[in-house]
Design a protein that fits this description.
Largest sheet: 7 strands, mixed
Distance between the termini: 29 Å
Strand content: 35-45%
Bound molecules: magnesium ion
CATH architecture: Alpha-Beta Complex
Helix content: 10-25%
Shape: globular
Number of strands: 15
Mean pLDDT: 97
Number of helices: 4
CATH superfamily: Fumarylacetoacetase-like, C-terminal domain
Oligomer: single chain
Order of helices and strands: EHEEEEEEHHEEEEHEEEE
Length: 202
């Protein structure tokens, strides 16, 4: 399976990192080995600036290639919340050199996947989600602010990559990204319900 991630998909987040809003979805990937197997996430030894990015996830339920906008909703049944952990200092160096982002984005434990939820239970175009860091809200997003909505993402991604059952799309993070340190606790909610709970360890 693969994890397809979208960058700069909320204007306020693009602005907070001094990036322009893209004209087409910005796509990168994480391998299956990036998936965290526990809710205790070890702080990587190659960064001093590990950032959380809370994102809405789409769980691909049907093989998809060259999907049209109208057909896109038929290729995922479940959504969820996840965290795209980013070594921001490493990413900054990659960006300056024009290098790929894998060292900063695709390392072990960089992908946190919360539980799957039936998409029919939610208004996907007006979905509120938020992240607490040590009980203080640090990110609050709504899918109505997406630059490229879920259907556009499936259409665009499936032009280049066959999506297989089990693949997961990280749809981008809203504003408010920031650093964590060992001992920190992160909790994510969708429509006020808690769906993700993890701790950073040494
Ligand atoms: Mg992200």
């Amino acid at each position: 399976m693969k994890l397809i991630c979208i960058g700069r998909n909320y204007a306020a987040h693009a602005a907070e990192l001094n990036n322009k809003v893209p004209k087409k979805p910005l796509i990168f990937m994480k391998p299956a080995s990036a998936l965290a197997s526990s809710s205790q996430i070890p702080y990587p030894d190659f960064t001093n600036d590990l950032h959380y990015e809370l994102e809405v996830l789409l769980f691909i339920s049907k093989e998809a290639k060259n999907v049209s906008l109208e057909d896109a909703p038929n290729y995922y049944d479940h959504i969820g919340l996840g965290i795209d952990f980013t070594a921001r200092d490493v990413q900054q160096k990659c960006k300056e050199k024009g290098h790929p982002w894998e060292r900063a984005k695709s390392f072990d434990n960089s992908a946190i996947i919360g539980q799957r939820m039936d998409k029919e239970k939610f208004d996907l175009e007006n979905l509120k989600f938020s992240l607490l860091l040590n009980d203080k809200e640090v990110q609050s997003g709504n899918t109505k602010d997406l630059i490229f909505d879920f259907n556009v993402l499936i259409q665009e991604v499936s032009k280049y990559f066959t999506l297989n059952v089990g693949d997961i799309i990280f749809t981008g993070t809203p504003a408010g990204v920031g650093p964590v340190k060992p001992g920190d606790r992160l909790q994510a909610s969708l429509e006020e319900e808690l769906y993700l709970n993890l701790t950073i360890i040494q």
